[in-house]
Amino acid sequence: MKKLEQAIFEIQNQADFEKVALEVYHFQRENCEIYRNFVAQLKKKTPQKVAEIPFLPISFFKTHEVRSKKRAIETLFMSSGTTGSDRSKHHVESLEMYEISFLKSYCNQIGNPEDQIILALLPNYIEQGNSSLVYMVDRLIKATKNNLSGFYLDNLTDLIQAYETAIETGKEVVIFGVSYALLDLADLKPNLSKARIIETGGMKGRRKELSKEELHEILKKAFQVPFISSEYGMSELLSQAYSDQNGLFDLPNWMQVLIRDVNDPFEFIENGKTGGVNVIDLANLYSCAFISTQDLGKINHNQLQLMGRFDHADIRGCNLLIE
User: What is the dihedral of CA 127, 143, 220, 276, to 10 degrees?
Assistant: First the structure.
């Protein structure tokens, strides 16, 4: 398995991706019971290319253990939610795969944490526990090797003071924040013009739901920054994407998105058109790498543009609601 693990993070082009994705498919069809049963029910021919691989509905993570059972469970990640019963569960068999994935993505898209000071406002994720986001940010904070880096919970004044001290060091300052906590911070109108702000979504019933554009406009004005980044991730995935100044998400080489027809889950639509987001995350080697999400989006110039969520989907911390 080590060879396949390494191949995932060595993907350089589409040919590499197709080859490795098909290997992962065959491994998961053989070893992940719920995926094997799902594929069998479809009675489709063996896929010869990525577009023919079946995608497991993300809701299965709420009702089943989606894993290969090739290794012992190393940790359990759970989605944000109001009760334990409605939270998705990701039984992770390899934390190493997760750590390699998020560190590579972060370094490629945001920067080397050793050159940064990272401040985090993620109070609800910490309170609920079992958060993959908290695990990731905690590891990134430790990688900065700086005492100013850390979780600031609801201590907004302390975070502002930490930011002001941090910029004097000459290091880049990155602030992760759940949406409602960033809005609370925005009420204080601190000048954070030298920080990179990364919002992770989620009002959690604390604030009125806003579109991504409305949220970013409020934060940009309050913090005096040219743009706000977003992090696209979820407990069911071991990879993340980050948005650029145009609000479009760049995906790591081992992650791709196909857009499905909203009326036919087995048909894909052309780039530039809106549909359901199907994610291939090959870092999910030991669970399921092929997931049909409840997000709406489209592909523009090989980047993902999120458009919201299906109106019958659960509220999730990392996504928008359809207005």
Answer: -70
CB 166 within 8 A of CB 197: no
Domain that holds residue 132: 98-232
35 vs 25: CA distance, rounded Å: 10
| Mean pLDDT score, 278-292 | 98
Q: Are 98 and 234 in contact (CB under 8 A)?
A: no
Cα gap 269→118, rounded to integer Å:
39
Q: What is the largest CA-CA distance in the chain?
A: 62
pLDDT tens, residue by residue, 166-212: 999 999 999 999 999 999 999 999 999 999 999 998 766 666 778 88
What CATH number is attached to the domain comprising 144? Answer: 3.40.50
CA distance 60 to 57: 6
Q: Which residue has the tokens 């609370």?
A: 184
* Residue pLDDT, tens place only, 135-157: 999 999 999 999 999 999 889 99
